[in-house]
Design goal:
alpha/beta, 956 residues, Lambda Exonuclease, Chain A, six-stranded mixed sheet, globular, 37 helices, Nucleotidyltransferase, domain 5
């Protein structure tokens, strides 16, 4: 059972003045729960209150009476004022407690619960007042906090002292809680101005359903209006921000949203196993009245299955009924565990555990997290292990539905999903809220009929849960017909798997066709291009026959060797002796593929590495020089050219295989070229370390990050750090920025970055990218074309930045010329800090500018520090080109190796150095290579594999 939202409804006492145009507490509470409800309250419209709402009103009256009596016990009769209009004259009397105070002016007629005097200077003297609020529940909700903030604002304006905290009297025990007023007077005043704007304008705010609707008196009216409009807020769980984002794209109805669904690409096992919830797919299920299956929903099976449901009163933190339905070998057992009072909660938990422990390895199912939260709350030390075993074997069926099964309903509640499967409840108004009404009525009159009604309702929830689990197991096993599945009472639901309908959502990808008939599959196999060309057309085409004969006549001949290298041994590896003799019948030779690169071009050459078997005359053992087995058949020049083509020109390994064969007549296969990347990345580890060191010890760093999908892992991140001369790319498994503190420790320059929060905690000076900021401004202005506050703020910032950029264009990034703009920058920030914006988007930018005030114009005080992050974005773009062909295909190790070589390539490009010449030189220090004027040093004719490394295709 899902815990209901705490209500805030009509007060027990009417306000002093009740006019539709005045903001009363009833209007204020309605607005805090739902802006549209506040509008209806202002118009004076009445709705139909539910039984739950009527019960809460009575409970609130009783709670307020008891709270007032308890507060009155601590004061004498003359120390309490009741039902007075708050004014400076009344407050200056200094009474310790005021109950039922109210405020009245042209727009307000507001009553709240109480005021308490505390010490502290104010307009009144050496004391001031803080607000008191009565809350019948045990939890303080967001609405109560805002109501306390607004009461604090109003009393603060009267006494000219804003209270730092308020008091809330909670629950049946009348516990006093001290609540800090965190929002502050500015934020509370903005909220109050929004409410007053409703009175001035008179037009309704945006119509949206929310969680408060289930206890609202206008729920039926609003639901009918939402269905008529096909409102997006009908989809439960879709927040206001998401709806606004969709409206900016022109999507305003569920039907429109349903047309936007596109299946996601599968990157790794984790993404396919637990896909995120898609509101677009939910909308399509509602539109087509069909169940959609995404992925592979899995529910565990067992010989004994237990379905259980817990009924409780969340406001009092009291659970009184556990319904248990047990299935074993086709038989059913049903239990209803009832608690008369909170003292019996322990008893029903023990009974539940005893029932579960009768069976060996049962599987338990619940719907939602309420049951698991109840069991965790009852984890006393004496039964902690027993409850943990139950929790380990409990499955939340709702979590599987949320990710994988999309029913044609607006909400995934048990009543909606079970109703689609044919489940029915005895009571017409049966719900979690109504069960609370029945329970509290039973506590008053102990009516056995109400108790029986609750037990029946609870067991019907268990039966609905059982039917939902059966349905999911049925579609998982696939034992139903192709397009339908049977629910409870013979109800048939159409369903479809999203993977099978993939072609309806997107373009056809490269794939092998699946044919329903074996004959069709056989015919298709005989119609492939290569098969027909080699087996069919060759019989009638003379050209193809000659081509086939040419391939057969080609014979492999020994290549011409241009250089020979002799490997000798000076001592025995076994005894260390130097009395050696060459075995003339033990000559060994190995050919090495090499490229000779000159100004005129590139040509191939073959190097022969020769060695002999040796006999040690001291220990009489025979051996071969160890270095002979480490000789790489591919020279450093060949590897360098291949990686130059791969990194600089994004040639694939298969393309390089064909290019080497056609250009140089050498057979080098794609897996071997893949190994080139690994070997060179290992060879240039020291180069990468030197580049990173120069960046960190410099005076300027540009930083940025982007995502990429890795085969078998899903989404990972690539971070780039660059100065004006060096670039380094780093692989990270996630976007967390904890490693930045270790990487940039000791950096004393300026960090240029975007507005990602991970950079904010770094201790160095920072410059935020202003290009990012103006892009965000432009995006929101286009999405809110009538927001004058946002346009005004953006225009002021644009005028300021244009003046600064004009100076940079004329004189460069020199602080002696940019210093003249400091005064203009300070005046701009002072102006926006003191300005009141009504637009929510404009206030968001106001907060953002205030937060990053010290990091937006850092470049004014430094030479050579840019005001944008274009250097990092340019480096990211180079990786993005590679990502287009490697996304979801590249492995983690391959990505790490590529990033190492890409770092060297971009650093060479920033310094105006040839990446190919640097690789061919075999130099590891770019500075040393640049100091020689790009002249190659001594180059070895062949390479040796690292110690202990043997290629996968080589046997020793």
């Amino acid at each position: 059972m899902t815990a209901p939202t705490s209500p805030t409804k009509d007060q027990d006492r009417p306000d002093p003045v009740r006019q539709p145009s005045l903001i009363t507490r009833e209007v204020l509470e309605g607005y805090l729960n739902c802006k549209y409800k506040g509008h209806l309250k202002l118009k004076g419209e009445q709705g139909t209150k539910s039984d739950y709402e009527a019960m809460m009103s009575e409970w609130r009256i009783e709670h307020k009476r008891r709270a007032c009596d308890k507060l009155a016990l601590h004061y004498r009769e003359g120390e309490i004022l009741r039902e007075v209009e708050v004014s400076v004259a009344v407050l200056r009397k200094g009474v310790p407690l005021i109950l039922d105070p109210f405020v009245r002016d042209d727009t307000l007629s507001l009553r709240w619960d109480g005021l308490k005097r505390i010490e502290g200077p104010s307009r009144l003297g050496s004391f001031h007042y803080i607000p008191i609020l009565f809350n019948e529940g045990e939890k303080i909700r967001r609405e109560q906090r805002w109501l306390l903030e607004l009461c604090g604002l109003i009393i603060g304006d009267i006494q000219e002292k804003q209270p730092a905290h308020g008091i809330v009297i909670l629950g049946d025990r009348l516990t006093a809680a001290k609540i800090e007023l965190k929002a502050g007077p500015r934020q509370a005043r903005r909220y109050l101005e929004e409410i007053k704007k409703l009175v001035e304008v008179g037009s309704p705010p945006d119509f949206l359903l929310n969680d408060h609707c289930q206890i609202c008196e206008y729920r039926e009216r609003c639901h009918l209006q939402a269905v008529k409009e096909d409102n997006l807020s009908l989809l439960r769980g879709m927040g206001e921000k998401t709806i606004k984002k969709l409206k900016r794209r022109g999507i305003t109805t569920i039907t429109q949203l349903s047309s936007t669904y596109r299946p996601r690409k599968k990157y790794g096992k984790d993404r396919a196993h637990c896909p995120p919830h898609s509101f677009a797919l939910q909308a399509m299920a509602v539109r087509e009245k069909k169940v959609f299956i995404l992925g592979a929903p899995e529910l565990p099976n067992a010989q004994v299955t237990i379905f259980f449901d817990v009924e409780g009163d969340p406001e009092r933190k009291f659970d009184y009924l556990i319904g248990v339905l047990i299935e074993k070998n086709g038989t059913e057992e049903r239990y209803s565990l009832w608690a008369d009072s909170p003292d019996q909660e322990e008893k029903i938990v023990e009974q539940f555990l005893e029932i579960v422990e009768r069976y060996e390895n049962p599987r338990l199912f619940s719907y939602g997290s309420y049951e698991a939260a109840f069991l965790r709350r009852m984890r006393q030390p004496s039964r902690k292990e027993r409850i943990d075993r139950v929790l380990d074997r409990t499955t939340n069926a709702l979590s599987v539905i949320y990710s994988n099964v999309y029913f044609p309903v607006y909400s995934n509640g048990l009543k909606e999903v079970g109703g689609r499967l044919g489940c029915r409840w005895t009571g017409d108004n049966a719900s979690g809220l109504q069960s609370i009404v029945w329970r509290r009525s039973w506590e008053v009159n102990r009516d056995e009929g109400l108790k029986r009604m609750l037990e029946v309702y609870n067991m019907e929830d268990c039966v609905a849960l059982r039917d939902v689990v059966r349905f999911i197991n049925g579609i998982t096993v696939g034992n139903k017909s192709e397009n339908d599945a049977e629910g409870s009472s013979g109800t048939v639901l159409d369903y479809a798997r999203v993977e099978e309908k993939g072609n309806e959502f997107s373009r056809r990808e490269w794939c092998k066709a699946n044919f329903s008939l074996p004959d069709f599959n056989y015919i298709n196999m005989l119609s492939y291009f290569d098969y027909q060309r080699e087996k069919v057309f060759i019989r009638t085409s003379p050209v193809l026959k000659r081509s086939r004969l040419r391939k057969r006549k080609k014979r492999r001949t020994r290549p011409h060797v241009e250089e020979q290298v002799m490997l000798r041994s000076e001592s025995c590896p076994y005894c260390g002796g130097n009395d050696l003799r060459e075995k003339h019948d033990g000559r060994l030779a190995r050919l090495v593929m090499d490229l000779k690169v000159s100004r005129k071009g590139i040509r191939r050459r073959w190097i022969e590495v020769v060695s002999y078997r040796y006999l040690c005359l001291g220990c009489r053992r025979s051996f071969v020089p160890p270095d002979y087995f480490r000789v790489d058949r591919h020279s450093h020049s060949l590897k360098s050219w291949a990686m130059y083509e791969h990194v600089a020109h994004r040639a694939s390994f298969l393309a390089l295989q064909e290019s080497i064969k056609d250009s140089f007549g050498m057979r080098v296969y794609a897996p071997t070229i893949h190994m080139f990347q690994f070997l060179l990345a290992d060879y240039y580890k020291e180069t990468l370390r030197l580049i990173t060191k120069r960046i960190v010890t410099g005076k300027l760093i540009h930083a940025d990050e982007t995502e990429v999908y890795v085969k078998g892992l899903g989404k990972v991140y690539v971070w780039v750090f660059t100065s004006l001369e060096e670039v380094v790319y780093l692989y990270r498994p996630n976007r967390e920025g904890d490693f930045l503190h270790d990487l940039l420790s000791g950096f004393e320059g300026v960090l240029v970055s975007d507005f990602y929060a991970a950079y904010d905690s770094l201790p160095c000076k920072q410059q935020k990218c202003l290009i990012h900021l103006i892009r965000d401004f432009n995006h929101d202005i286009l999405g809110n074309p009538f927001d004058e506050d946002l346009k005004s703020l953006a225009a002021d910032f644009g005028i300021l930045l244009r003046k600064v950029v004009t100076t940079i264009d004329r004189h460069g990034l020199k602080c002696k010329h940019l210093g003249c703009h400091k005064k203009e920058v300070n005046l701009f920030f002072e102006a926006i800090c003191n300005r009141e914006y009504r637009s929510e988007v404009a206030r968001g930018y106001q907060k953002r500018l205030e937060k990053y005030r010290e990091k937006l114009f850092t470049f004014i005080d430094h030479d050579g520090v840019p005001w944008n992050n274009n250097n990092a974005e340019h480096a990211i773009k180079k990786f993005a080109h590679y990502r287009e062909i490697a996304d979801g295909v590249v492995s983690e190790r391959c990505l790490r190796d590529y990033l190492a070589l890409l770092s060297i390539h971009q650093t060479c490009a920033y310094r105006g150095i040839s990446f190919l010449r640097f690789l061919l030189s075999q130099e590891r220090d770019i500075d040393a290579f640049s100091g020689r004027g790009h002249k190659p040093g001594k180059v070895e004719p062949f390479d040796l594999y690292p110690e202990g490394f043997v290629p996968s295709n080589r046997k020793r």
